[in-house]
Amino acid sequence: MVLEPGENAPTVTALDQDGEDVELAFDAPTVLYFYPRDATPGCATEARQFDRELEEYRDAGVSVYGASTDDVDSHREFRDDEGLDFDLLADPDGELADAFDVDRTRGATERTTFVLADGEVQSVYEGVDPDGHAREVLEDALEDGLVTLSELD
């Protein structure tokens, strides 16, 4: 069973697509979405849509990270091919997925998204449809008052 809203978020470290350590404590609003595999149709759709909404996420003060059991090289190629502007976290040993209790019994992580802030899980989405999910998560965070859009100059 995945971590639920109200539970403490684990502090985690993972390698990004460039092989750099990324430490996440989830004090600031963050979306961490797990997806099965790089360069597959559903995963590409989801990644492109998070990237398309990224400016609004950033305006709301929200960081976005994607994670899968693919390795650093696969993530780098996928990020470059799709022109993504957010980090993809490599989790080949499943340690990140395990920290969030995300199922990976079929060798890949189940499509699961966490909204985290103040060191806690705020929202969880399981078994999501990748098409439209990025917008749904942003709208829910805004509606719930977790974040607000900044005034644009």
UniProtKB/TrEMBL annotation:
<dbReference type="InterPro" id="IPR050924">
    <property type="entry name" value="Peroxiredoxin_BCP/PrxQ"/>
</dbReference>
<dbReference type="GO" id="GO:0045454">
    <property type="term" value="P:cell redox homeostasis"/>
</dbReference>
<dbReference type="InterPro" id="IPR013766">
    <property type="entry name" value="Thioredoxin_domain"/>
</dbReference>
<dbReference type="InterPro" id="IPR000866">
    <property type="entry name" value="AhpC/TSA"/>
</dbReference>
<protein>
    <recommendedName>
        <fullName>thioredoxin-dependent peroxiredoxin</fullName>
        <ecNumber>1.11.1.24</ecNumber>
    </recommendedName>
</protein>
<dbReference type="GO" id="GO:0034599">
    <property type="term" value="P:cellular response to oxidative stress"/>
</dbReference>
<keyword id="KW-1015">Disulfide bond</keyword>
<keyword id="KW-0676">Redox-active center</keyword>
<dbReference type="Pfam" id="PF00578">
    <property type="entry name" value="AhpC-TSA"/>
</dbReference>
<feature type="domain" description="Thioredoxin">
    <location>
        <begin position="3"/>
        <end position="143"/>
    </location>
</feature>
<keyword id="KW-0575">Peroxidase</keyword>
<comment type="similarity">
    <text>Belongs to the peroxiredoxin family. BCP/PrxQ subfamily.</text>
</comment>
<dbReference type="GO" id="GO:0008379">
    <property type="term" value="F:thioredoxin peroxidase activity"/>
</dbReference>
<dbReference type="GO" id="GO:0005737">
    <property type="term" value="C:cytoplasm"/>
</dbReference>
<keyword id="KW-0049">Antioxidant</keyword>
<keyword id="KW-0560">Oxidoreductase</keyword>
<dbReference type="InterPro" id="IPR036249">
    <property type="entry name" value="Thioredoxin-like_sf"/>
</dbReference>
